[in-house]
């Protein structure tokens, strides 16, 4: 299963506060700020019961910049122990392992202690289930160096976003109500980067978002805008009760769905802006969980 490449999200400046340095020092002293995955080597654990598969991943990772392999696990139980011991940023996790499969590993660790996960498996039929537990990516063996590099980029993007949100929460603890709440939690608008511009879009007017031909597009008031933001970053900014990601390439606004037309193997989705999309049975099942 191949997933198109998203464009990395440009970095944004942190809000300035009077006495910010002392507040950061206070937060670090009282809370303990985490390391920043985007600035230090990406600490990776490989978990696969096949010796050859582990070695292939290890060799490909050696050629990647800013990557550190912190451990290798040959079973699900070893992966659980290694995650708890090493606290990696990212796990390249096989799905099918004899003692405890990849999904079992995720269940045992659980959020927020579970690092970012890229499933690496020879069976693409687990993709939707991996997507349901918010895996960063899903690679089908044998994967190419280029495809692995795309997945690592997505992991860095996600980890940097987590870091920003965690820092904001820690600062809010120190500052009380001085920091604004996360925009996705309360704002009716979404700020996105598009062709050297920042667009402020009303979330209720966004019909759908897609990743196509290595580019993310947002469909808004019968117009499509190419974005510099990655799909994973956009998903975390959107109101969770309004949008659903039906597959790794498509996010739908539930309020914009006008009609579903069933067909053999596919369902046509008619949106209020006139757009028409085709969903396979797995994507439709994902949509029906929220409709």
Average pLDDT works out at: 76
The gross shape turns out to be globular
Give the number of helices. 9
Low-confidence stretches: 1-39, 175-186
Q: N-to-C terminal Cα separation, in Å?
A: 27 Å
Helix content: 25-40%
Q: How many beta-strand elements?
A: 15
Largest sheet: 5 strands, parallel
Largest sheet, spatial ordering of strands: 2-1-3-4-5
Please tell me how large the radius of gyration is. Answer: 20 Å
Helices and strands, in order, run as HEHEHEHEHEHHEEEEEHEEEEEH
Helix- and strand-based class? alpha/beta
Beta-strand residue fraction:
25-35%
Question: What topology does this entry show?
Answer:
Layout: H1 20-30, E1 42-47, H2 51-62, E2 67-73, H3 76-86, E3 90-93, H4 102-109, E4 116-121, H5 127-132, E5 137-140, H6 145-175, H7 183-186, E6 189-194, E7 197-202, E8 206-212, E9 215-220, E10 223-227, H8 231-237, E11 243-247, E12 250-253, E13 257-262, E14 266-271, E15 276-280, H9 281-288
Parallel strand pairs: 1-2, 1-3, 3-4, 4-5
Antiparallel strand pairs: 6-7, 8-9, 8-12, 9-10, 11-12, 13-14, 14-15
Helix pairs in contact: 1-6, 3-4
In short:
The protein has 291 residues and is α/β, with parallel strands linked by helices.
């Amino acid at each position: 299963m191949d997933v198109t490449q998203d464009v990395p999200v440009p970095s944004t400046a942190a809000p300035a506060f009077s006495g910010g340095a002392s507040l950061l020092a206070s937060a670090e002293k009282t809370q303990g700020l985490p390391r920043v995955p985007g600035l230090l080597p990406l600490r990776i654990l490989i978990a696969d019961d096949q010796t050859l598969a582990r070695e292939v991943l290890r060799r490909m990772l050696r050629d990647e910049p800013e990557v550190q392999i912190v451990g290798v696990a040959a079973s699900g139980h070893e992966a659980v122990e290694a995650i708890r011991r090493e606290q990696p940023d990212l796990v390249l996790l096989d799905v099918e392992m004899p003692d405890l499969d990849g999904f079992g590993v995720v269940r045992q660790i659980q959020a927020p202690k579970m690092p970012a996960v890229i499933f690496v498996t020879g069976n693409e039929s687990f993709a939707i289930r991996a997507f349901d537990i918010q895996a960063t990516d899903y690679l089908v063996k044998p994967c190419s160096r280029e495809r692995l590099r795309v997945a690592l980029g997505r992991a860095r993007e996600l980890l940097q976003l987590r870091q920003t949100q965690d820092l904001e929460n820690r600062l809010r603890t120190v500052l009380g109500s001085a920091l604004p709440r996360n925009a996705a939690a309360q704002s009716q608008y979404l700020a996105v980067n598009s062709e050297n511009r920042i667009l402020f879009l009303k979330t209720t007017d966004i019909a759908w978002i897609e990743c196509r031909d290595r580019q993310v597009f947002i469909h808004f008031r019968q117009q499509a805008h190419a974005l510099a933001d990655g799909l994973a970053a956009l998903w975390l900014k959107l109101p969770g009760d309004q949008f659903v990601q039906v597959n790794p390439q498509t996010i739908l606004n539930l309020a914009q769905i006008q009609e579903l037309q069933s067909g053999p193997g596919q369902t046509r989705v008619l949106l209020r802006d006139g757009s028409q999309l085709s969903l396979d049975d797995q994507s439709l099942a994902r949509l029906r969980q929220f409709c």
